[in-house]
Amino acid sequence: MWKTALVVVVAGLLAGCQDSKKANEENFSTAIQSYLDTRDGLCVGVPGRVYPYQAEHDSPLIVEDRARLAALAKVGLLRQVGKEEAPRYELDANADTYLRRSSSEQSQGEHDAFCTGRLVLDRINYFTEPASADGFTVSQVSYVYHLADAAGWIKDSAVQDSYEDLRALTAQEVEGQARMILTNKGWVHQNLYR
User: Fold this and answer.
1) In the predicted model, is pLDDT for residue 55 greater than 50?
2) Global pTM?
3) Which residue has the higher pLDDT, 55 or 179?
4) What whole-number distance in Å separates Cα of residue 52 and Cα of residue 55?
5) Do residue 59 and residue 110 come from a single domain?
6) Is the pLDDT of residue 175 over 50?
7) 129 and 145 part of one domain
8) Band of the pLDDT at 78, cuts 50, 70, 90?
């Protein structure tokens, strides 16, 4: 009788041990969520390099910048100062909560962004069988995620109208693709592989 009990206990313990190197939804879900957790939620680029900033000229890029600046001012991240016909924009006190500065000094802020929320994995749609590529074992994974705990400004119609694809990225379900790499510790997203 004790042998049967021992076999049941050992089988239960083995069933609880997940092989992190196996290609399955659980391992890919863990690895993809780990990657999503490194992201700053959903971000929109900040027009301008230094503030106060004035969008001058009428090039297509500047016209796009003006729409974005006005939308970001509408939701309280920027403050419009100066004349209506030639407005300048400054960072609002509210901006610091959401502003992520570029880490590159040479970029002079061209990659600064306002970010909010966190990205949450909903499900794995499918994954390819692991295969060898460039000396690695890889699998392509299709998944669905959503934006959670986001500030209301990200869904403001003026902001969404001025940033291409923003409506799709704030939808209830967003499709994602990832190349996963097998390491000695299990699967990792290619962007986290070092």
Assistant:
1) yes
2) 0.81
3) 179
4) 10
5) yes
6) yes
7) yes
8) very high
- pLDDT class for 108, splitting at 50, 70, 90? very low
Instruction: Tell me: cis bond preceding 87? Omega within 30 of 0 counts.
Output: no
How high is the mean pLDDT of the chain?
85
Query: Looking at this protein, which amino acid is placed at residue 46?
Result: V
Residues 6+ apart with CB under 8 A from 158: 70, 71, 74, 75
Please indicate, yes or no, whether residues 150 and 126 belong to a single structural domain of this protein: yes
Q: How many domains does the chain have?
A: 2
- Position 117: which residue type? G
Q: What's the domain range around 144?
A: 21-41+117-192
Average pLDDT over residues 53-66: 65
CA distance 23 to 5: 31
Last residue of some domain: 84, 115, 146? 115
